[in-house]
Design brief:
Elements (H helix, E strand, L loop, with lengths): L2 E3 L3 E5 L6 H8 L14 H13 L3 E8 L2 E9 L16 E8 L9 H14 L6 E4 L6 H9 L3 E8 L2 E9 H14 L1
Parallel strand pairs: 5-6
Antiparallel strand pairs: 1-2, 2-3, 3-4, 4-5, 6-8, 7-8
Helix pairs in contact: 1-2
Length: 185
């Protein structure tokens, strides 16, 4: 079962065992340095995603573009995962991570299309009021993508594994960013 999204994108739940080899090749690729798994073994990836699958507040998905695996998406409840004690979550907050599959033939605008599809998926749930992210402060590429879809940096936070920019995007900020993008075309 997969959820259809605009632009030929769909998402389906990640299967920790059958998807592990594919996801392993993505998370260990040099372009995925900020995913923090460069030296992970296949079994490490299996374990990580089995733990996510078992967690009631953390979910992982494989994103497809025209039926082909193209990205990884995770969403989580920040009161229970990733940001516990680092900020005060509001009702309707949803945390998000995404990773576009590495490729030797990049397509201009593809990563922006992916983050837009991810945001569409998250806001398809009427309970989602605000998306929360915590990218590494050094990840300038993702900061630009986040800003393009409406995120605003709230503050710098120290996580055990990185210094991050806690950033938020409300449903209205996302709609405004989408309208601005459409008007620019």
């Amino acid at each position: 079962m997969s959820t259809p999204l605009p632009g030929g994108f769909t998402v389906r739940p990640l299967d920790p065992l059958s998807d592990a080899e594919l996801v392993h090749s993505w998370v260990t690729h040099p372009k995925a340095a900020f995913w923090l798994m460069p030296d992970a073994k296949l079994q490490d990836v299996e374990r990580e995603y089995m733990a996510i699958a078992a967690h009631p507040h953390h979910h992982a998905f494989v994103g497809l573009h025209h039926g082909e695996p193209a990205f990884l998406m995770e969403h989580y409840h920040p009161a229970y995962v990733e940001l516990v004690g680092l900020y005060e979550p509001l009702p309707g907050d949803v945390g998000m991570h995404f990773l576009v599959a590495p490729t030797d033939t990049p397509v201009h605008g593809f990563t922006r299309a992916v983050i837009t599809a991810v945001m569409e998926e998250l806001f398809a749930d009427p309970a989602t009021e605000r998306v929360v992210v915590e990218p590494d402060i050094r990840n300038t590429a993702v900061h630009a993508l986040n800003a393009a879809v409406g995120f605003e940096i709230a503050e710098r936070i120290a996580k055990p594994e990185k210094d991050a920019y806690l950033s938020f995007c409300t449903r209205e900020q996302f709609r405004t960013a989408r309208a601005r993008e459409a008007a620019a075309r």
